[in-house]
Fold:
Amino acid sequence: MADETTAVPAPEATETEQATPITGGKPTIDVKVYAPFNVYYEGAAYSLSATNETGPFDIMPHHHNFLCMLVPGTLAVQTPDGEKTFKLPKALLHVKADRVDVFVDV
Structure:
């Protein structure tokens, strides 16, 4: 009896699936840092570094969905134009599908 293997076709991409954007040859995430009446940064980023109650962490492309409260401190965003840093009070950070929203003054 010979082993038979059946090729399983690859699943087709759905409309809701999106490819990770690439800027400068590197994958990026979309980042928006804002308060109710001010947008501090909105654009592409290679990574984002922040601190929550557990300690410092980084968000990079393909990160799992994530939600946390940031402690007061520095938020660093690595953009195609260089690093942008923000001194933040408490903030809410939300990651979903290569998009990061940081709600300041919450």
